[in-house]
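Retro notes, structure queue

What went well: the backlog is down to a handful. What didn't: a couple of records were mislabeled last round, so from now on we paste the full input next to the output in the thread. Example, using Chloromuconate cycloisomerase from Antrihabitans stalactiti:
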Amino acid sequence: MARQRRRICDQAGAHPRSEASGRRQELRDVQLRTGSGVTHDLTIVGVETTILDVPLVRPHKFATTSMTAQPLLLVAVRTAAGAIGYGEGVVPGGPWWGGESVETMQALVEKYMAPVLLGRRADNITAIMRDIERVVASAQFAKAGVEIALHDAWARSLDVPVHTLLGGAFRRSIDVTWALGAAPAAEIIDEANEILDARRHFSFKLKMGALDPETDTRRVVEITEALQGKAGVRVDINARWDRLTALKYLPRLAAGGVELIEQPTPGDQIEVLAELNRLLPIPVMADESVQSPHDALEVVRQRAADVIAIKTTKLGGLRRSRETVAVARAAGLACHGATSIEGPIGTAASIHFACAEPGIDFGSELFGPLLFEEELLIRPLQYSEGQVQLPDGPGLGVELNMDAVKTWSRN
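Corresponding output:
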């Protein structure tokens, strides 16, 4: 099979729709001048997608699946002046979570989204994403890859970091919780203690939902008791328990020292989440229940959660993420910088967002690249003392190692 790297267009003129040719020519004539006097043409002349399969340092287990490698879709947007912006389409372990996969994302970007981009300016993000909504419903993970690539290309053209486009960074780092997966208790405790000794992370999240609830609850309480006084422990059930199971076991988890419960029941059952939130003495976090700003509004109306998990992937990019955070902040809910196990491009975008958005006030899980066996950047993201640092430099502030990208591109 041919390597999964596809160049959608080498120049804006390759776009076949005559109706857009005049607009493209007009846009080519519009130049953005920086303070240095250098002219930058922001016209989008190329879109490229690449599927990678990057091995992990250990299997990562979810409620319904496990993965030893993470598939990523790189989306590259190239301007007439030569700026290249990157975005990332990624879901946590495949289509089980939200229905998308790297394969479906690639098809949507190539056939339906790229024609909307070509000939437009990279800084015309609002109009571009509005027009994409008219031809592609849902598919927020794919749209996030495109939207973030546009931000990266625009910021690089201006020689400023992406967070400048979001209002500027008010902090230079953010706390990072480490996900310990769904392994046996002894294995989890050993891993947690090694991480604590290295001072890499100081809080942990455990996956639940893959085992019998009784066995799973005993396992988590054993881990929580072993780490008591050393680290906070929260759990993520990935929406796999029904109401009666949750009513039976969640109080036991809270009594056992768990500090937060993430999405115990199906995402569309917000009234059940609200019932559980009223019952529990510890915070409840909504993840699968919040995939749009309107979902956040419904969680607020029903008082279904205390914290909302903000994934720039599931929400369709940086702008819809900001809208979702605004709803939560207006209601006094906290927001957590969550992850879809992104690679370094997607993680860097979420770090820029979290460092520019005061509403991300419940830490983060932006650990994705630490789970990867292979480094994809020339200079890795910096993790230490329980935090990840905001990258410096234009755009997302990171540079891909193209040799590594080639190595792990799908054949």
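Agreed that this is the format going forward. Reviewer comment attached to the example: Residues 8-39 have pLDDT under 50 and may be disordered.
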